[in-house]
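Quick one, tokens below:
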């Protein structure tokens, strides 16, 4: 049975984000939740894989922006295939699935208005696991690795032909990004070592049909290596590449770089040490922040460069006014000690409940803060700001913080354990400090058990709207006849005010 709420019973409305609508469907141990893909102003698609012993199908449900169901269907596909990527592009959802042999792919194109679909079976000559998937008007672009070497294959929707992108790379490297531009040209970013063994970024540009245009290798400066980056394109065809840099042979970051590449391929890389940023350390408590800045100033006065060992995920590089906004998240791996000498149900071998025979094991990634920086089209830093993340631990590295921009301010927000955290900034200034609100439930008296949400996700929708979705175990303390419990898959519609 499907539940739709057009207006939440007691609307959560605070200065930053308003929760204006909720969709629920009950689930049980035999059914799973859904993944959700934005169709922008056309609504959303709910989808999941339903499997049996002999077959499997890809179930899809289309909802409009008011959560009214428009159509529902299922696409059967070979049980030997696993879905790896979904991409919405110009009125269609594209679904990529890989075969168990890693040679074969299935590509499904679904018309979001009607639900009609076309299924393409692709046979590749080189086995690889896809890690990137993009689409333009002509091609399906699939990227991955073969023996640690980046590889990209192109499927031509007109010629119905699959080909390997020639001359991409012959060395071990990282496929950082496949970026499709509005004119259907696309860039491939690769992070790898140059002839001097310093790590840098290679940008390879292609026509909409996949023909090679030009290659650009960003120059490095001294002992600096470019670790990772993202690319975008301005209205005058200048390309902006921004990311993190570190010392040679190190995966840690000590600052950020920005490169502006003009249409002729000329570029200049600008470097910004974390110590030179106004607000990079503002996520810390005041006393710790003072100690860090004291050490920074002390090294500067001695003429020494400040060195940091941050791990920073670079997620987005988006245009904003006459600038570009870079969003990244800092994290560190966490470990814990366990005593291997203790057997279940018994004392330790030492006889005293303790033994020095301990082992450190990985205990997830702890996020510390998001950093937001603005650059002009020449790569000059305009301002920076941060958003503290002091409660997120995960075993999978992913983007948590999202940003919504308007003319005067930027809203930063993330969702974790049923709580929505928000902060509003304007340049380097904080307009409204961090606020925390629970995800609103459907009816009065609903309480989320253990205040936890499975499948915590926060995604962009359209305009000023985002949506949060996941699975909640809910109890209602005000229900007639006594307290009841239910498991639900939910979607909450959020509006940045």
């Amino acid at each position: 049975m499907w539940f739709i709420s057009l207006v939440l019973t007691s609307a959560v409305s605070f200065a930053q984000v308003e929760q204006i609508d909720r969709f629920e469907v009950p689930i049980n141990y035999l059914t799973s939740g859904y993944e959700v893909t934005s169709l922008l102003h056309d609504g959303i698609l709910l989808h999941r894989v339903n499997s049996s012993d002999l077959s499997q199908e890809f179930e899809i449900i289309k909802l409009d922006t008011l959560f009214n169901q428009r159509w529902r269907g299922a696409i059967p596909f070979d049980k030997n295939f696993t879905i790896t990527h979904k991409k919405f592009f110009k009125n269609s959802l594209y679904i990529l699935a890989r075969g168990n042999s890693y040679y074969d792919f299935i590509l499904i194109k679904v018309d979001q208005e009607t639900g009609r679909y076309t299924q393409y079976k692709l046979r590749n000559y080189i086995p690889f696991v896809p890690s990137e998937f993009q689409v333009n008007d002509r091609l399906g672009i699939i990227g991955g690795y073969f023996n640690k070497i980046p590889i990209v294959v192109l499927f031509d929707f007109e010629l119905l032909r699959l080909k390997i992108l020639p001359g991409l790379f012959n060395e071990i490297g990282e496929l950082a990004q496949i970026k499709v531009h509005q004119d259907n040209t696309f860039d491939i970013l690769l992070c790898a070592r140059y002839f001097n063994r310093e790590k840098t970024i290679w940008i390879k540009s292609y026509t909409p049909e996949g023909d090679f245009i030009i290659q650009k290798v960003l120059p490095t400066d001294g002992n600096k290596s470019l670790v990772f980056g993202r690319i975008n394109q301005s209205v005058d065809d200048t390309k902006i590449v921004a990311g993190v840099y570190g010392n040679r042979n190190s995966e840690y970051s000590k600052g950020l770089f920005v490169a502006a590449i003009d249409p002729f391929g000329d570029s200049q890389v600008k470097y910004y040490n974390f110590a030179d940023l106004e607000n990079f350390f503002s996520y810390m408590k005041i006393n710790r922040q003072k100690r860090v800045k004291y050490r920074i100033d002390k090294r500067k006065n001695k003429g020494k460069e400040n060195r940091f060992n941050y791990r920073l995920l670079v997620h987005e590089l988006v245009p904003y006014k006459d600038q570009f906004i870079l969003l990244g998240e800092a994290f560190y791996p966490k470990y814990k000690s366990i005593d291997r000498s203790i057997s279940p149900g018994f004392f330790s071998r030492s006889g005293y409940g303790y033994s020095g025979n301990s082992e450190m094991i990985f205990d997830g990634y702890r996020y510390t803060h998001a950093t937001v920086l603005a650059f002009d089209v020449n790569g000059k830093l305009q301002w920076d700001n941060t958003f503290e993340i002091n409660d997120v631990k995960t075993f999978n590295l992913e983007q948590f913080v999202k940003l919504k921009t308007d003319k005067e301010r930027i809203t930063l927000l993330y969702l974790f354990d049923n709580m929505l955290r928000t902060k509003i900034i304007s340049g380097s200034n904080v307009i409204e400090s961090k606020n925390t609100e629970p995800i609103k439930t459907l009816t009065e008296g609903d309480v989320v058990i253990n205040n936890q949400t499975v499948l915590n996700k926060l995604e962009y929708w359209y305009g000023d709207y985002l949506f949060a979705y996941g699975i909640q175990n809910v109890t209602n303390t005000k229900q007639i006849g006594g307290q009841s419990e239910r498991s639900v898959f939910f979607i909450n519609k959020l509006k940045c005010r």
